[in-house]
Amino acid sequence: MSNIKEVRVPDIGDYPEVDVIEVLVKEGDVVKAEESLVTLESDKATMDIPAPFAGKVKSVRLKAGEKASEGTLILTLEADESTSVIPAQAAPAPATAVPVPMAVAENKPPAPAAPVAAPVAATGGKVHASPSVRAFARELGVDLSQVNGSGPKRRVLKEDVQAFVKAELSKPRGAAAGGLSLGLAAMPAVDFSKFGEVETKALSKIKKISGANLHRNWVAAPHITQFDEADITELEAFRKSMLDEAANQGVKLTLLPFLMKVLVAAMKAFPEFNASLAADGESLVLKKYFHFGFAADTPDGLVVPVIRDVDQKGLIEIARELGALSTKAREKKITPGEMQGGCFTISSLGGIGGTYFTPIINLPEVAILGVSRASMKPVWNGQEFEPRLMLPLSLSYDHRVIDGALGARFSAFLCNMLGDVRRLLL
Ligand code: CAO
Fold first, then answer.
1. Cα separation of 321 and 313, whole Å?
2. Got the DSSP string for 93-157?
3. Relative to the CA of 346, which ligand 1 atom is closest?
4. Rounded to whole angstroms, how far apart are CA atoms 289 and 167?
5. Contact 131/48 with Cβ under 8 angstroms?
6. What is the pLDDT of residues 312-341, one digit of tens each?
7. Which of 418, 283, 244 shows the shortest CA–CA distance to 346?
């Protein structure tokens, strides 16, 4: 009596002609009872069809990509002698599938009963994976939503889970490698093309590097942003009066060099702003030099060139360096050395617009000054409203190093100085 039995698609509910999306066994494989043989997918659910008994696969009759319905021959299986003998007259016990609507669950364990085709919601807009892959992932403690699926419709295959585990294991360990372990929920992989036309564009190298640094800085330092307004009416009149003289020296004199000079005075008055936390977090390193970074917008993303020894340079010299470094940055000619050693960063959006924003500290610096577009405003002078040119300032600082009161004092100092730059001479 031949022990070879046909295994057919059991009752899978009201789903004729479903897709065969994965065949999980091949000829010669030895399978255990209830081990998944194929994965089927209707437009509402994914289900694994389990082996009705243990045995050796003789011939596989279904291929991925084909259609199957109740009764379709999947494979022939030679029953394992050691397992309980299937009564000769009985066909393999029909498996009953209870498909679960896709929207209900993802990452849920499949129903364990046997011999039941384990149905699992497949997408719900999130993870496509067969129940066997889900079981495999669960065994390894892998969150499937973090795994990139390489199968059709981004389906996560067993190999993807293996590749994910391999990649995770080869990563440096969080805290031990000096990184942060945030334990954030995984970002869902959304197939935007489902909602309309899309185009994928690779991120520039600068964006990738600055993005990672900005993200780290954003979460590593407790940021406070202090907003203030400086009256730069007189400063602007002076700057304008100097434009021709500067232009004769081939220089465009903008507001930034003035801000840098005022910042030097403020950092001398409040040395905690010209400091960095030591790597072990146990002490503060106070700097005696004044190198300022400025955020420069380039077609490839944000770069921060550094002007050195601002305390020892005049306005024209600073303006000249600013112009030269921003041109170099935009022409992608800036060198790594020209972006190192900064004590403090200025991010000026003044040439573009906007009122206030919350700049991200360029760690290990402890503060950054955001500058927005100056505008004429009515300001009460005690007797009447006067039109004054007001400059919005947004000072973000690291609250581990700087207290709120100190932040507000520093900001007020800047406004005071900018209101009358003659004070720089005192
Ligand atoms: N209020 C009003 N006008 C301002 C101003 C302000 N706060 N700041 C600059 N301007 C004016 C300038 O006077 C200049 O006017 P004119 O062309 O009429 O002379 C114009 O805006 C453009 O200035 P600029 O941008 O050429 O020069 P700058 O020294 O102010 O700035 C630089 C240089 C490199 C900082 C700037 O070009 C830049 O790249 N800014 C973007 C920085 C950025 O992206 N920050 C965000 C970082 S976080 O993503």
1. 10
2. PPPB-----TTT-SSPPPP--TT--EEE---TTT--B-HHHHHHHHHHT--GGGSPP-SGGGPBP
3. 35
4. 43
5. yes
6. 999 999 999 999 999 999 998 999 999 999
7. 418
Q: Chain-centre distance of CA 158, in angstroms?
A: 26
Nearest CA to ligand 1 atom 45: 347
For residue 375, what are its two tokens? 């505008």
Kindly report the number of other CB atoms within 10 A of residue 8's CB atom.
20
Cβ 120 vs Cβ 131: under 8 Å:
yes
H or E element at residue 220: helix 205-220
Ranges assigned E (strand) in 180-333: 223-231, 275-277, 284-286, 292-294, 296-298, 301-303, 306-307
C-alpha to C-alpha distance for 6 and 59, rounded to whole angstroms: 10
Put the strands of the sheet holding 4-8 in their side by side order: 4-8, 73-79, 55-60, 30-31
What is the SS3 assignment for 90?
A: coil
State yes or no: pLDDT of 405 exceeds 60.
Answer: yes
Are β-strands 367-371 and 73-79 bridged in parallel, bridged antiparallel, or unpaired? unpaired
How far apart CA 283 and CA 340 sit, in angstroms, is: 22
Helix, strand, coil share of the chain (percent; to 5): 30, 25, 45
* Residue where the block lists tokens 């694994």: 48
Percent of the chain with pLDDT over 70: 86
Based on its alpha-carbon atoms, the radius of gyration of the chain, rounded to whole angstroms, reads 33
Can you give the pTM of this predicted structure?
Answer: 0.64
The amino acid that residue 196 corresponds to is G
Give residue 94's pLDDT: 33
* CA-based nearest residue to 371, from 225, 271, 253: 225
How many CA atoms, within 13 angstroms, populate the side-chain half-sphere of residue 198?
9
Q: What is the pLDDT of residue 121?
A: 34
- Among 218, 346, 348, the mutation site with the greatest number of ligand 1 atoms within 8 A of its Cβ is 348
Protein residue with least CA distance to atom 7, ligand 1: 350
CA distance 262 to 73: 82
Mean residue pLDDT of the chain comes to 85
Residue identified by tokens 């070879």 is 4
399 is a catalytic site residue? yes
Tell me which residues have their CB closer than 6 angstroms to ligand 1. 254-256, 294-297, 302, 322, 326, 347-351, 371, 373-374, 391
